Amino acid sequence: MEKAESCGCQKLSATTIPNERSLSRTPLSAGVHANALADSLGVSPMYRQVDSARWNSAAQLYQSSRAQSPTPGGVRLQIPSSYGSVASTPMASEDIAAMNRKRFLENAEATENEGCLELEAIAAVHELSNNVLSIYVSEILPRTADLIFVNVKTVEDQAFTLELTMKGWRVASTHSDSMNGDYMNVALHTKYFDNIKHVMNEISPGHNKKFEECLCRRLELLQKRKSLEENEQGIQT
Q: Domains in the chain, start-ordered, CATH in brackets?
């Protein structure tokens, strides 16, 4: 994903999936190249084709929601029924998370949840990308329609592996690409959070400050642009 400008939201390709360099930010291995080639030729194992289809569908939906101009109440999108009622734009990770937690409490069938976790993971990575040192979906740990692991390094330079299921977010480890928790801190690893921002409030005290600084710089940039445009219009008149 490329940054549009300093402290701005990152552009998300409609074809972005966890195997691509833009999302993972990790070197591509020969195995990943082979998997990508197999996917493009349609000769990869069926489970990989299904996995890629879920991620592509979620990425395209999220991209479409971000492309719409924000309006009161949002813009209605034509989306698969499996994504529930989250159809307004732009999509927010909290709204997607609330939908998924509701589905969990209602014991929704697994087939009805396909693509929902991928959508939440994509939104989380996109929204937090400027407020952490790094965040990306793990390519090493298991990844299914019911389980996703996200690596994050906070502004305090502390690495975490976060587990995402329909039940919510959980801190799986204080290391990247790991499912081994710290037995001295069982309370942290057994606590579930409703959305990614609740997790960040717990593990990164500097997260909100970073967000506020980024927002202030962006507002200053917008104000400078507005002043420049007004000056140019004054000169023309």
A: 45-65+89-234 (3.30.2280.10)
Tokens of 96: 């997607």
148: which 2 tokens? Answer: 């996703």
Average pLDDT over residues 107-124: 82
Q: In degrees, to the nearest 5, what angle opens at C-alpha 88 toward C-alphas 86 and 92?
A: 70
For the entire predicted model, the pTM comes to 0.68
46-105 tens-digit pLDDT: 767 778 888 888 888 888 877 654 433 433 334 444 455 444 556 889 999 999 999 899
What pLDDT does 206 receive? 83
| CA–centroid distance for 226 within its chain | 31
CA angle 38, 15, 2 (to 5 degrees): 120
State the Cα torsion 206-163-130-200 to the nearest 10°.
-20
